[in-house]
Amino acid sequence: MSAQSFLLQPDMLLRAYRLGLFPMAETRDSQRLHFLDPDRRGILPLDRFHLSRRLARTLRVTHFTITADRDFRRVISACAARASKRAETWINQEIESSFCLLAERGYAHSIEVWDRERFVGGLYGLVIGGAFFGESMVSFARDASKIALVHLVARLRLGRFSLLDTQFITDHLSHFGALEISRAVYHSYLAEAVLQDVSWVANPDPAKLSHEIAVMRDETRSKSR
User: Which domain range does residue 189 map to?
Assistant: First the structure.
């Protein structure tokens, strides 16, 4: 782990992620960054995603509208903001600005959840080849970030991505099937994933998207038997 105080450039970020590194700041106002390559890495296997019965039911009846790449800046700004349940954040202004530039270049992507025109949650991350590096998620309504995650996974499966990097494991992600692997195993997955020739599917055919989510639900059911 190393601390740096230089200006973070988008191309530098892309090189870092290809090498298995990712940046974090100690606080929102911090001027220094740490590039991490932890001994244990969190991933969410796309072919073993756990979609609970309750969340599957919520997805079928929800009135929320889910979009992709509609308002990246709003998503990362919400993820970076301090909140009552999160007194501090690791996304400083340098990270936020660099990811916005990467979004403009087609590397960074977001999923947004809307209640009519009100933003209620979402997530964002970085795409290189067939790897999606999940960065952060935020929720202002029940299940909003969970719904965003399901829609992310469905898009990655439709696009034939092979790696969803969660960086670390949380109880929240564990419920969806996230697991921890060693640095060496992660790097082997990463080396293959970044060479994949796949495409980010921002606006899939609604019928295909619904079908993929149904398949995820059926896969979860079959594993629980």
Answer: 39-224
Q: For residue 85, tell me if it sits in a domain.
A: yes
Task: Kindly report the average pLDDT of the chain as a whole number.
Answer: 92
CA quadruple 12, 17, 18, 21: dihedral sign: positive
Average pLDDT over residues 49-65: 93
Give a yes or no: residue 57 inside a domain.
yes
Phi, psi of 23 (to 5 degrees): -95, 150
Q: Which residues contact 25 (CB under 8 A, 6 or more apart)?
A: 32, 33, 34, 90, 91, 92, 94, 95
Q: How far is CA 147 from CA 58, 66, 141, in A?
A: 9, 8, 11
Number of domains in the chain: 1
The CATH code of the domain that includes 163 is 3.40.630.70
For the whole model, what pTM was predicted? 0.93
Q: Is residue 202 part of a domain?
A: yes
- Give, for 42, the enclosing helix (H) or strand (E): strand 40-43
